Amino acid sequence: MEPPVALGPARPDWTWPYEGYEPAGERLRESLCALGNGYFATRGALPECDADAVHSPGTYAAGCYDRLESEVAGQRVENEDLVNLPNWLPLRFRTRATDTADDTATPWFTPDTHTPLDHRLRLDLRAGILERTTRYADGAGRHLRVRQLRLVHMGDPHLAALRTELTAEDWSGQLEVESALDGTVANTGVARYRQLAHQHLTHVHTGTAPARDTIWLRCRTSTSDIRVGMAARTTTDGGGATATAHEPGRASILLRLRLERRRTVTVDKCVALHTSRDPAISDPLHAAIDRVGRGPDFETLMRSHHTAWDQLWRACDVDVPGEAGRILRLHLFHLLQTLSPHTADLDVGVPARGLHGEAYRGHVFWDELFVLPFLNLHFPEVSRALLNYRHRRLEQACFAARDAGRAGAMYPWQSGSDGREETQRLHLNPRSERWLPDHSRLQRHVGSAVAYNVWQYGEATGDTEFMHTKGAEMLLEIARFWADAAAWDKARGRYRILGVVGPDEYHDAYPGASRPGIDDNAYTNATAAWVLARALDLLRSLPQPRRRDLFERTELADAELDVWEDVSRRLLVPWHRGLISQFEGYGELTELEWDHYRSAYGDIRRLDRILEAEGDTVNRYQASKQADVLMLGYLFSPRELHRLFRRLGYELDDTIWQHTVDYYLRRTSHGSTLSSLVHAWVLPRVRRADAWRYCQEALAGDIADLQGGTTGEGIHLGAMAGTLDLVQRGLTGLEPRGGTLRLDPVPLPELSRFGLSIRYRGHWGVRLRLTAHQLRITVPASDREPIDVALGDRTVSVPPGETCLLPLPLSHE
Ligand code: BGC
Asked: Glycoside hydrolase family 65 central catalytic domain location, by residue (predicted)?
């Protein structure tokens, strides 16, 4: 009973196996076993199961959003969602009682109706294949073995394929297989959103293509009017009769197969997906039917898919030993499935939950801050495309600022199709079942994240063409917004930014206040000062003709630059007890009785929900959801942070920073996966012995579903990419700056040897290898200029084709 297609030998460090069928864990597996290619992704749902309380199949195309109105808690609200597209997976099977023509079919096999005898999933990261094996028994005790191989093609982003091998273990007889396209789906993947409108697909039509083995489905989204075309070709080596059927919203093809005992029959389903957002097509349905008709057989598809993945793995090799390395590979896999080289051709941003589920409605937050710095050094063209997404929405951000009575660009906290503010007005606390006002849109710091990424991209790539055009335009308008948002406080002799929310979403107002927002969030103000300073640097460095064009077009005058300079030096950073205050007044809030809440509730990550359900509010306490002040240590190297504070007229030495870290660590509940990541980055730098604990938490965030059920609604892309960047930049201290690669490794005894390769300014495959005592850097042969590398006080120039060994300073140990 050897299966016809064998995958390579199971490499434990490259595979994620799941044993047994566990309904309660199904959604988590569906997210972690999702397959995608940057253009679209499909959750790892079982093809024989429809959406219900256990299963949540979903297919999402990057940037494919739709807007619907709903009524909740007596209010009309509008939400834009990443649309769950028609399900291309359905493939179910059932035995027939006898061989005669008038026999009766037994129910379709599903793990919920027939307890599986064996059930296994194996995600093969190297090959990008999800393998599934299940043994079922029908009512007559006849055993059927099912093996499926699934791929979402990394080479041709419009194709996916499902191979099903069916083996009658101890019987011969008839088996029916139904392969379908299902357009009756809705956005029902997140329980909290179910009271909201979720039917995004309309005008669903189906048909059979002239090639009789191909069915098709077309539909459109309700208000964004994106047209979707899907076609599926189903072939088998099992002979037998086939028939197509069309019910409302669903097309299927039925195969009647004759199975011989211990002989394997194969059914292949090849699927093509197009939407009206695609370039170079006439209409999505024609494109899909045409593509699937020309699609090669499964083995050929698998080979070209494998090649495409090989190339990706070579482009961003992260060689970390042990379990950490295995998890990092999974994170890289999901990052590349969400943002791949195909993304470079799309108008999309960084979806916080990947293309893996419906949480946060597929919106784009500030999470790109944790993603782009990694991509810059592997796929700079993808980073550039993601920055272009922001640039195309710069005008919308300027409108938002103007509507708020401000100058410049005010980027939205949550962004979707056109860049308007998509943050929900109300959110549900599932603990109290109350709908509550949502003020998280006051997180104006998202603009600084965009600016930071523009700057980092420029440093990593040296792409002056971008920096002098779109980059400069974004930086200028974001800086302008900050300069205008900063109000001069005569009594304090400082500029202040009032009424915002910082990265810590728990604090959205002062206790008892009538207006939302807090004042002088240290992170917001310090990053605003940084943006202003960088914008000034960039404008000064512009070639004169370009500078003139830009100044004319944006009506920028030198006097405005003088204001920027002043604001960048005199923004207020609040302090209490000699430490940076998260915001003005944080130090006066009540101390939370952490032990009490821990023993009463166990998991207190979502302290906000706990307290609200108790009739209290987290706004009263010195308790943070996630790293806020400490984000400064994530964005800036110690040297740069000291410089930034000095420019603001504050002294921030190592001791103050160390105490600041300790202070907030004790007051953070880590209610976001980004929190442990940022702590994992910051703690090794202040030599805290518990740094590794936070690294482990950051690594386990999704695989162990640490946020209690949220991974089943989509992966946490920022944290996944952030862990990769933790190795790439966090532990190495790698900082591309002014054309030099600066390194400042930090000791983390549990992770002291690793290697990685980067693409840097036209050099492909630059290898870095770090041990506790030395750093080795190898520049592949090419006709490029040598790379300047700085470590401590030493700068060396490494020519192409050479390797350089740099001993680490003793302080590293
Ligand atoms: C975090 C935000 C993050 C968002 C999307 C929230 O829970 O608090 O910082 O941007 O999730 O990942």
From this structure: 329-724
Q: Where are the chain's structural domains? A: 12-313, 317-730, 754-812
372-391 tens-digit pLDDT: 999 999 999 999 999 999 99
Residue 421 CA to ligand 1 centre (angstroms): 15
Q: Whose CA is nearest to atom 5 of ligand 1?
A: 352
Kindly report the CATH number that applies to the domain delimited by 12-313: 2.70.98.40
Does the beta carbon of 360 lie inside 6 Å of ligand 1?
A: yes
Q: Is 701 exposed, middle or buried (0-12, 13-18, 19+ CB in 10 A)?
A: buried
**Residue 675 Cβ < 6 Å to ligand 1:** no
CB 94 within 8 A of CB 109: yes
Q: Is 612 a catalytic residue?
A: no
Please report the DSSP string for 514-535 in residue order.
SS-BBS--HHHHHHHHHHHHHH
Which residues is 259 bridged to in the sheet? 173
| 739: exposed, middle or buried (Cβ count in 10 Å: 0-12, 13-18, 19+) | exposed
DSSP percent split of the chain into helix, strand, coil, nearest 5: 35, 25, 40
Q: Which amino acid is at 271?
A: V
Q: CA-CA distance, 633 to 456, in Å (whole number)?
A: 16
| Ligand 1 and 359: CB distance under 6 A | no
pLDDT at 535 over 60: yes
Beta strands in 542-621 (DSSP E): 575-576, 579-580
536-to-9, 398, 529, 566 alpha-carbon distances in Å:
56, 19, 11, 11
Say whether 464 sits in a helix, a strand or coil: helix
Instruction: Say how far apart CA 374 and CA 696 lie, in whole Å.
Output: 19
Euclidean distance between CA atoms 165 and 431, whole angstroms: 45
Alpha helices in 48-127 (DSSP H): none
d(CA 219, CA 268): 24
Whether 367 lines ligand 1, by a CB cut-off of 6 Å, is: yes
Query: Is 282 in a helix, a strand, or coil?
Result: coil
Residues 27, 23: Cα–Cα separation, whole Å: 8
Q: How confident is the model at residue 240 (pLDDT cuts 50, 70, 90)?
A: confident
The pLDDT-based confidence of 5 (bands split at 50, 70, 90) is low
Give 6's pLDDT tier (boundaries 50, 70, 90): low
Burial 630-640 (b: 16+ CB within 10 A, else e): bbbbbbbbbee
Pocket probe mutation, ligand 1, options 672, 676, 678, 711, max atoms within 8 Å of Cβ: 672
Report pLDDT digits (tens) over 687-704: 889 999 999 999 999 999
Determine contact, residues 93/177, Cβ cutoff 8 Å: yes
- Both tokens of residue 423? 């943050």
324-380 pLDDT, tens digit each: 999 999 999 999 999 999 999 999 999 999 999 999 999 999 999 999 999 999 999
What is the rounded average pLDDT for all residues in the chain? 96
What are the start-end ranges of the E strands in 83-197?
91-95, 118-124, 129-137, 143-152, 159-168, 173-182
Give, in degrees to the nearest 5, the angle at Cα 631 between 629 and 633: 100
- Ligand 1 atom with the smallest distance to the CA of 717 is 12
Nearest alpha-carbon partner for 135 in 156, 155, 120 = 120
- The β-bridge partners of 494 are 489
* Distance from the alpha carbon of residue 369 to the mean position of ligand 1, in angstroms: 12
Q: What is the pLDDT of residue 453?
A: 98
pLDDT in tens, 410-421: 999 999 999 999
416 with 350: CB under 8 angstroms?
no
Q: How many angstroms separate the first and last alpha carbons of the chain? A: 56
For the segment 755-764, the average pLDDT, to the nearest whole number, is 96
Q: Give the mean pLDDT of 591-596.
A: 98
Instruction: Provide the pLDDT confidence category of residue 7 given band limits of 50, 70 and 90.
Output: low
> Which one-letter DSSP state was computed for residue 444?
T
